[in-house]
Specification:
heterodimer; A: mainly alpha; MetI-like fold; 2 domains; B: 239 residues; alpha/beta; 6-stranded mixed β-sheet; 26% strand
């Protein structure tokens, strides 16, 4: 009986090619991998290499002293400040929006999801123009704000608003699928065990979404520091005051100060690389917990 | 604790999950809500636990109106269909959760929490798994941990939603006896939802047969089997 079954299996194996059904031919796999590596090399690695070589074209000293200029330091400070305001706020909004969408059923949920995606589909320049139309000196609200000493456009608040608009979807988008997959049962269990809503959020919801949240925050941060279009419209590009790093890079480049421009660009790229390294390190450190979260 | 359900109804938007139903559950009874999916049995259980609010009707716990009580105030030990164990916590922390969540005033000291969790692990006959995570447990072990977690808060009643639904047939048989045993040891009024009539008949004192949001029959397993009240009950029990 067993022998017969074994023979059948052997026959079947002989009749079929000796590889998993879902797999492709080796040459096809190799071509695909080569293609991906080529694209990654040309589109991602080569530009990065160019940025760093151009920045260091006249030596490390020149690059560092370019970054030490007063206006350059102001631009770095402003970019960090804007990210420090916009990212935490968007993290909170993102968690709130994802929570509402994933855990409750209400009218207009589909519209809310679409609205969250809006910044992805609207051109950043258009977003910036919208802010100018609302908060500019020619609009009633903008005029009132200027008269009271709180200018938004051509000032830091406008840059923060533009950055927040552009980076709004990142945290929510990361969290919604994770929260929807987890469902509400664990939160309900915590409530039946006597935990308050806030305690349930802190001890059950937050630990379950922490990796998605971290990832969303890192993406949001990278984009917040790198945003150009929307910020360019509202900033007014006043050197030393409303110039962020990306705007500064363009300005320096247009003035043929290529070492200064590429040094700034290299620093911006480094900041992004640091966030990515941080994420990878954390993933590596907590690999077992991550796996446990997924398997459940 | 004696549970009295008076004309309880629930609508979700335009769909009616529960027509006005009334039911009296004597203190210390082991009651099964039996019916096919969509019969309203889980909705009824969730209303008892405070996870849903009824559209109309009242719930009385020991003759006191409990309809407006929050889920925390009810102190119902709830076992969820897929157990809903906290996946980022060890078995120990899962069971201790309800005790740690208490306001500082009535929170037991750490040594007492440790003692109680150990006792509960003994009760579910899994004394050695305190340090494991839910993903490292079998289905049957998860179910028993969920039961221990629900018991840890010293509940006034035990509510179980398809407690054996996600288990294979052999484990299911084994755990049925386990639930009956724990019920007899704790003396807690226990309500469990099931769609499996064998399960209901084997361990419940009282079987409540439900269909389409209404109660078809309330009776002992023997009554329901030998004298089905409606055509539906006769068909369902015979199946």
């Amino acid at each position: 009986m067993a022998d017969v079954a074994f023979d059948d299996a052997a026959n079947l194996a002989r009749a079929q090619p000796l590889r998993p059904v879902a797999s492709e031919a080796p040459w096809f796999r190799r071509t695909l991998v080569a293609l991906v590596l080529a694209i990654v090399g040309v589109l991602l690695l080569a530009p990065l290499a160019v940025v760093f070589t151009e920045a260091l074209a006249k030596g490390l000293g020149a690059a560092v002293s370019a970054l030490g200029e007063r206006d350059a330091r102001a631009a770095i400070r402003l970019t960090l400040l804007v990210a420090a305001i916009a990212v935490p706020l968007n993290a909170v909004f993102g968690v709130a929006a994802a929570w509402a969408i994933a855990k409750f059923d209400f009218r207009g949920k589909a519209i809310l999801i679409t609205l969250i995606d809006l910044p992805f589909s609207v051109s950043p320049v258009v977003a910036g123009l919208c802010l100018v139309l609302v908060f500019g000196a020619n609009a009633p609200l903008g005029a009132w704000l200027v008269a009271n000493g709180w200018p938004v456009i051509f000032a830091v608040p406008g840059i923060v608003l533009a950055t927040m608009f552009i980076t709004f979807p990142f945290v929510a988008r990361e969290l919604i699928p994770v929260m929807q997959e987890h469902g509400r049962a664990e939160e309900e269990a915590a409530l039946t065990l006597g935990a308050s809503g806030w305690r349930t959020f802190l001890t059950v919801t937050l630990p379950n979404i922490r990796w998605a949240l971290l990832y969303g925050v890192l993406l949001c941060n990278a984009r917040a520091m790198g945003e150009f279009g929307a910020v360019a419209v509202v900033s007014g590009k006043i050197r030393g005051q409303t110039n962020t790093m990306p705007l500064m890079i363009e300005m320096l480049y247009n003035e043929y100060l290529s070492v200064a421009a590429f040094s700034m660009a290299a620093l911006l790229a480094l900041l992004a690389l640091v966030t990515l390294t941080l994420k990878t390190a954390l993933e590596w450190r907590y690999a077992d917990q991550l796996a446990a979260n997924r398997r459940h | 604790m004696h549970i009295e359900i008076e004309e309880l109804a629930k609508e979700f938007g335009t769909t009616t999950a529960l027509l006005p139903v009334s039911l009296s559950i004597p203190s210390g009874a082991l009651v099964s809500l039996l019916g096919p999916s969509g019969s309203g049995k889980t909705t009824l259980l969730r209303i008892l636990g405070g996870l849903e609010t009824p559209t109309s009707g009242r719930v009385l716990f020991d003759s006191q109106d409990a309809t407006g009580l929050s889920v925390q105030e009810r102190r119902a030990g709830f076992v969820f269909q897929h157990y809903a164990l906290f996946r980022h916590m060890t078995v120990f922390e899962n069971i201790a959760y309800g005790l740690r969540a208490r306001p500082r005033r009535i929170r037991p000291p750490e040594a007492e929490i440790r003692r109680r969790v150990t006792r509960l692990l003994d009760l579910i006959r899994l004394p050695d798994i305190a340090g494991r995570y839910p993903t490292q447990l079998s289905g049957g072990q998860r179910q028993r941990v969920a039961l221990a977690r629900a018991l840890a808060i010293e509940p006034r009643m035990l509510l179980l939603d398809e407690p054996f639904g996600a288990l294979d047939a052999r484990v299911r048989k084994e755990l049925r006896g386990g639930l009956r045993e724990i019920h007899d040891q704790t003396g807690l009024t226990t309500v469990f939802v099931t769609h499996d009539q064998d399960e209901a008949m084997e361990i419940a004192d009282l079987v409540v047969v439900m269909s389409m949001g209404r109660i078809e029959q309330i009776g002992t397993p023997h009554d329901v089997r030998s004298r089905p009240a409606t055509r539906f009950v006769a068909d369902f029990v015979a199946a």
